[in-house]
Amino acid sequence: MKGQRSAPLLLLSCVALTAVAHAADDGEEPVVLTTAGRVRGFRQQLNGKVVNSFTGIRYGKAPVGALRFREPQPAEPWTHVADATQPAPVCIQVDTNRRLSRVQGINVQTEDCLFLNVWSPARNNSASDLAVMVWIHGGGFRFGSSSFSIYDGALLAAYGDVVVVSMNYRLGALGFLYGGTEHVPGNQGHLDQLLALHWVRDNIAAFGGDQGRVTLFGESAGSMSVDFHLSSPVSGALFQRAIMQSGAMCTHSDRASDPRLLTKVKKMAMYLNCTNSSEPETGLPEDVIECLRRADPLHIRVAEGLVCPDTLCFVTVFGVPSLQNEPCRAEYHGSKDILIGHVVNEGGLFASRSFPAVFQAGSPKNLTKIEMLLLLAPLVSPPSPQLLDELHTIYTRDLGDTDYEKLRRAVQDAWGDKEITCSSIETSAKLAGNTDYSVFYYILNYTSSSPPQKPWYGMSHVEDVLYVFGRPVLENASSDDQNYSKKLMGLWTSFAKHGKKHLVEAYQWPQLLPGNLAALKVTSREPEQTVLNLGDRCRFWDRLHHSQLDLS
């Protein structure tokens, strides 16, 4: 019903976990010739425009058998007209919160998942001059799929008159396991993304897109992936602009020489009966690797869940050929316009997952200041009285025992700073240090009015994705929610088409510079200029991160 909308996280659980399903066709089915063969899509009418939609186009060989854990290979040519009207299968993944079991229309998890989607406005000519937006989904490198309807790019393509592309990539152990040898090089999921970018370069003109105007964008782990490709000299030539939504590699990557990486793999191998009594300290022996390649992928998923039941397990690794430098000290290549930022309450999702009774949107449980402070203990490893005292000084010192809402927000701020905000700010300053980069920072600050949210809640991690892909418009939500969604769709697609020129002319957006961390707060009203100044908060997390990295 118009105007009704559940709490943001509840909406996400219902909307995101639905397979992309197409609406009624509008005329003849479109057929496009790619470098591998012809594909048949379907037509949709959205926002007064017809969109040619292609879901489930193969871009890589099935990474199975001898190709498991290796760099992906391009799809082999086909002679038939391939069906691109159904959701692609989901990559094998650990589903710790049983989210995938609730997905409508998705019944298959498989290693053979290297497929992508294309949404392109229908046109009366064969010109290839539309800006292209390539989306990388999030999910902590262990969960997610481009087949989820939250990432359906049809409305974004219609609203902004752009071509939208999204891809699946390998997740978890199958996508990011590092074995210490050239045969298991790590970052396989990122290399899948790179192969998809090559596919875009070679094929997007056939869909009306301009291969010289490609914007790479992603959220959370997807944004960290954008960061990976910005720092890769191989990827850099394949896109010209980037949007990083709530995520940077700096604090979410592992050093290849860290012995804990191999320990995780050995534990997983033990569960799969792939152990070797004479295993070396620096890499997996070939017989263990071959055993892992023969293992049932669903058994690998179970073993990964046993090794890492509740935490990120296999993520980006550096000190390897695909990523040489530590991300916090990465070098960036080429000349690019960058839009980077975070939402006002990044920590809301993380805190509510860990302590649902305290942070539920309805009637949360009230805790005293010392009880709230103890909720921060999981953020520091190992927790110590000294570190907790520092957290108290930074986040809760000036709050009273009964300042329940402010205490909640302080705890959420701490979670958000550690997981997302501080690394995003640090990365933006680092990007701005490259004189060939034009960097613009945003803070999304919007709270849905349907139903009214608690003052301490605000837009949380992942919620921005709903607005960027137009879910409030498609779901006929409140007019305020729809207007904010249209604002973000317009902002994102205008940046993809015109880059920094549009930001400066339309919004007087200040460019972020190393000595001037200017930003724009995007609200339901006129944007507000602000300065990124989290001071002691980010210095604490930066120091903690680097001390832990040095220990590794």
UniProtKB/TrEMBL annotation:
Highest taxon of the lineage: Eukaryota
Entry's Gene Ontology BP terms: acetylcholine catabolic process; choline metabolic process
GO cellular component: extracellular space; plasma membrane
Main EC class the enzyme belongs to: hydrolase
Catalytic activity, EC: 3.1.1.-
Pfam families listed in its UniProt record: COesterase (PF00135)
UniProt entry tagged with the keyword Disulfide bond: yes
Keyword Glycoprotein set for record: yes
Catalytic activity: acetylcholine + H2O = choline + acetate + H(+)
This protein's UniProt keywords: Disulfide bond, Glycoprotein, Hydrolase, Neurotransmitter degradation, Serine esterase, Signal
GO molecular function annotations of the record: acetylcholinesterase activity
Signal peptide: 1-23
Catalytic residues as annotated in Swiss-Prot or TrEMBL: S220, E346, H461
InterPro entries associated with the record: AB_hydrolase_fold, AChE-related_enzymes, CarbesteraseB, Carboxylesterase_B_AS, Carboxylesterase_B_CS, Cholinesterase, Lipase_GDXG_HIS_AS
Carboxylesterase type B domain mapped to chain residues: 29-541
Family the UniProt entry places it in: Belongs to the type-B carboxylesterase/lipase family.
Name of this protein: Carboxylic ester hydrolase
Organism of provenance: Ixodes ricinus (Common tick)
Species classification: Eukaryota, Metazoa, Ecdysozoa, Arthropoda, Chelicerata
